[in-house]
Amino acid sequence: MSDHHHKETFVTKYIFSQDHKMISKQFLVTGMFMGVIAVLMSMLFRMQIAWPETSFTIVEAFLGSHQTDGIMDPDIYLALVTIHGTIMVFFVLTAGLSGTFSNLLIPLQIGARDMASGFLNMVSYWLFFLSSIVMVTSLFVEAGPAAAGWTIYPPLSALPQAIPGSGAGMTLWLVSMSIFIASSLIGALNYIVTVLNLRTKGMKMTRLPLTMWAFFITAIIGVVSFPVLLSAALLLVFDRSFGTSFFLSDIFISGEVLHYQGGSPVLFEHLFWFLGHPEVYIVLLPALGITSEVISTNSRKPIFGYRAMILSIIAIAFLSTIVWGHHMFISGMNPFLGSVFTFTTLLIAIPSAVKAFNYLTTLWRGNLQLNPAMLFSIGLVSTFVTGGLTGLVLGDSALDINIHDTYFVVAHFHLVMGVSAIFGMYAGVYHWFPKMYGRMMNKTLGYWHFWITIVCAYGVFWPMHFIGLAGLPRRYYTNTNFPMFDDLLQINVVITLFALVGGIAQIIFFANFFISMYRGPKATQNPWKSNTLEWTTPVEHIHGNWPGQIPEVHRWAYDYSKRVDADDDDSDFLHGQDFVSQNTPLLEGEQQS
Amino acid sequence: MLALFYIFIGVAIGVSFWQITRVMDLRTVIADDNDNDKQGKYFLVFTVFFYAMMVYCLIAMNVLMLPESASIEGEHDDNLFDITFWLIGIVQFIMQFLIFFFTYKYRGRKDKKAKFFADSHVLEIIWTTIPAGVLALLIGYGIWQWNNVMTLSGDDDAIVIEVYSQQFRWDARYAGEDNTLGLGNVNYIDINSLNTMGVDMSDKNSQDDKQVTELYLPKGRKIHFKFRSQDVLHSAYMPHFRAQMNCVPGMVTEFGFTPKYTTEEMRLNPEVMAKTNNINKIRKAKGEDFYEFDYLLLCNKICGASHYNMQMKITVVDEDEYNKWISERPTLAEVIKQ
Fold first, then answer.
1. Of A81, A195, A393, A507, which sits most exposed with the smallest number of CB within 10 A?
2. Cis (ω within 30 of 0) for the bond into B168?
3. Does the structure show a pLDDT above 70 at B150?
4. A354–B contact, CB cutoff 8 A
5. Mind listing the pLDDT tens digit for each residue in A473-531?
């Protein structure tokens, strides 16, 4: 192992590091930085919705030439919602969540010295960094950043005549996303290869912690679907710059007929959502994986239905690739497809329900250690159920007709994938912070952070369902032109207040994170008394993870509170304590779970 | 006043930073029995807040909802929606209670032991098959209704109307005596000769077509809409009729429904009256003019700067009144200079 101990310079250790633990921290901090931008944007456009005719100094300060007397312009409003969505979905919840925890945990939990290719792993991060830079740069181009919605449907995204954001801003968006996809693919391939090939002795696939299953399947979905978005982006570049007509046809704009013939925007929608829907699960599955681990550890109980959980992850992953059409029921595609996609979409409710019930049963008769990570995981189960249930309304094509693109949709997907995934990410940070930085985060601030965040999250998104059912379309700069929506304004004000408080409250997390990084109490080796292998490594990071041999695995990850007599709850713990690390050999006569 | 506000914010930020540093000095990091007890109880308090909010929204916001469907086809949508909503409502209320109650009930204590309970085939089968059964019902009814709405062939006496979208306005074209629309394409657009919708005037079907800026629909007759767009995607959203379809440049999309109530009748609907009164109370307080209910067609697909103000009024009238109105509109042959 001599190659793991060569001399590190500052540059190879902190910047161009090939160590998965350092790369995971880089992903996390970059994702957090992008998250701050996206949340600030959401606060600005929420203020516009609640107080459309009020002048704000803060708007003047942030938006510069895109505002008049402290009131934002309609174009920049659309740009803000576009970039908020893009950054949140891709940069925070894909790279920030999956990038961080796949990198940190895959080698540690399967018992590997590092990723299969440390170099590609480094490339993956730096491509992500580059794409972040390009995306941030696009905010400063003169005509404003991309503003066609995060779904960038052409022709709006293809024609600068249609909206100013479709000029240089859109070009940079496409460049940024193309680099991002490359980063994501390189990362995902690395995760897949690592999980398949570098598991330590005894770590059978059926002994992998559920986090590993979630990250592994997520990577597979990414490899299957991201290239399709890349192809859509490239074809769009061709249409925009080289005069092809993949997505455009019969357009009259700014007083002239354009030359495009024979293309169809519906084709773009198909390509986009072939990634776009699996993307929901690319975002969500890692959060669910983290939750499985955190809930099991903190309940001091095995996760209920381990095999059912794996099967439901696989079922969700498979179904996620054949349901994209439910975003397009009223796009003009053949109505027969609507029936097919309704059928496949509603099927997803089954594995999702299984997961929710299994989490619930894991809590049942547990000995719950209510650490901040545990609170966020419980919060995730709650928002996942709330948001998931409204999916039954939206996935039914007949009902979707009337609530498509209303605030009901916004409320649904924010709860089921936005808030849930963010909660999963927070749970992960609180839980594995000691593994990342060798120190502990403050629990009191963690509690404050959780309670303010969940109250605000529900305060924002629960009432939002109802303004959607009242027929309010999303992406409206102001609703004052429709008297029929006048009675919704007050609710929008309440939502905005919750959003502002919730957004500002994230400062508590950031303070906790950065202060703990330097001043937090030193962590012990296994602070949460967990079974998985990452807690057998030393607190101080070393290249190669384990100082001596890689531990051998003898059992699954969930032997919590195992008894001497399996049928007697009052009998003593089998190993003298309520957890048994995966590298502990089976006792004589011990049953495998 | 504003200065005071900024001073207040400054002080608040200062205090919170001071508090945060104080809390950070408490070097407790792992939940103990005391924390478990407190947090478990907070979950009970949160449950009260959460249920109060859910129930309050469900009751108080009822008046804001869209009134009953104004189209015959939409009746089943409302029905299916009610079934689905009751169903997910019940599941939501039970599940959330269990999640939070279990968290409270099983909050950890040093002297307690968790139950080792890893698997149960019976339970897994129960909560796989029950959702599957319920879903079969929702899927079945949903697909039946979808086909019901989307099947437009067979209605030969349906009135054909083209809805035409552009940044940022709507126009409509009635098919005239022959009930057949003349061909259209952006290449025929000629603003100078008032051919703004790009109608092929050499097509004999075009001559009697009638272009309007407002929709009049006869009550009780099936309307067969055809949608076109001349620039970017738009979406013709008619929420009161449970109707929506995207307008896609380069292709013609379709939707159909049968208006059930005239505008006048709808204004007397109790749900509409409650909502309108509520709105007018708000408008009066702000000194804005009186609002009267009208059906609307709104754009519901992001289409550019003025997306938020792209609307067209729809008026539903009795068939006699409709016939009178349509006969007074000029045909394209009369309007377009050739």
1. A507
2. yes
3. yes
4. yes
5. 999 999 999 999 999 999 999 999 999 999 999 999 999 999 999 999 999 999 999 99
The pLDDT of residue A1 is 40
Structure token digits, residue A41: 């944007």
A485 and A472 Cβ atoms separated by less than 8 Å: yes
Buried b (16+ CB within 10 A) or exposed e, A531-546: bbbbbbbebebebbbb
- In three-state secondary structure terms, A395 is coil
Task: Kindly list the distances between the CA atom of residue A507 and the CA atoms of A215, A445, A502, B30, in Å, as whole numbers in the listed order.
Answer: 29, 10, 10, 21
| B33-60 and B74-105 helices, crossing angle to 10° | 160
Closest CA to A169 of A253, A233, A247, A79: A79
Q: Whole-model pTM?
A: 0.95
Does the pLDDT value for residue B6 go beyond 70? yes
Q: How far is CA A374 from CA A188, A368, A533, B65, in A?
A: 28, 8, 20, 37
Q: Is the dihedral of CA A137, A138, A144, A150 positive or negative?
A: negative
State the smallest CA–CA distance between residue B204 and chain A in angstroms. Answer: 22
Cis peptide leading into A74, omega within 30 of 0? no
Please report the pLDDT score of residue A593 as a whole number: 66
Q: How far apart are CA B303 and CA A147, in angstroms?
A: 10
Interface residue A584 vs chain B (CB under 8 A):
no
pLDDT in tens, A216-234: 999 999 999 999 999 999 9
Helix (H, G, I), strand (E, B) or coil at B231: coil
Percent of residues, chain A, with pLDDT higher than 70 = 99
DSSP letters, A38-98, are: HHHHHHHHHHHHHSTT---HHHHHHHGGGEETTEE-HHHHHHHHHHHHHIIIIIIIIIIII
Chain B residues 116-175 within an 8 A CB cutoff of chain A = 116-120, 123-124, 127-128, 131-132, 135, 138-139, 142-143, 145-151, 166-167
- Apex CA A476: angle with CA A43 and CA A133, to 5°? 50
Rg of chain B taking only CA atoms, in angstroms: 29
- ipTM, 2 dp: 0.94
Interface probe for B, chosen from A487, A489, A560 (most Cβ of B below 10 Å), is A487
Model pLDDT for residues A361-374, shown as the tens digit of each residue? 999 999 999 999 99
Asked whether the beta carbons of B300 and B247 are under 8 A apart, the reply is: no
User: Cβ-count burial of B192 within 10 angstroms (0-12 exposed, 13-18 middle, 19+ buried)?
Assistant: exposed
Structure tokens at B227: 């949608």
Where do the structural domains in chain B lie, given as residue ranges?
Answer: 159-335
Q: Which of A399, A404, A563 sits opposite B116 (nearest CB)?
A: A563
pLDDT band at A591 (very low <50, low <70, confident <90, very high): confident
DSSP H or E segment with residue A448: helix A443-469
Q: Check residue A6 and give its pLDDT.
A: 59
Using a CB-CB cut-off of 8 Å, the residues of chain B touching A459 are: 53
CATH number assigned to the domain covering B159-335? 2.60.40.420
Q: Assign residue B117 a region: left if phi > 0, alpha if psi is -120 to 50, beta otherwise?
A: beta
CB-based burial label for A137 (10 Å; 0-12, 13-18, 19+)? middle
| Interchain pair A443, B28: CB under 8 A | yes
Average pLDDT of chain A is 94
Give me the percent of chain A exceeding a pLDDT of 90: 90
Q: Is the pLDDT of residue A101 over 80?
A: yes
One-letter amino acid for residue B311 of the chain: Q
Chain A nearest-CA distance from B128, in A, is: 6
Please provide the DSSP assignment of B168-210 as one string.
TEEEEEE-TTTT-PPPB-GGG-BTTTTBTT-B-TTSGGGTT-E
Which of B25, B145, B146 to mutate to test binding with chain A, by most A CBs within 10 Å of its CB? B146
State chain B's mean pLDDT as an integer: 92
Strand ranges (E), A245-307: 252-253, 256-257
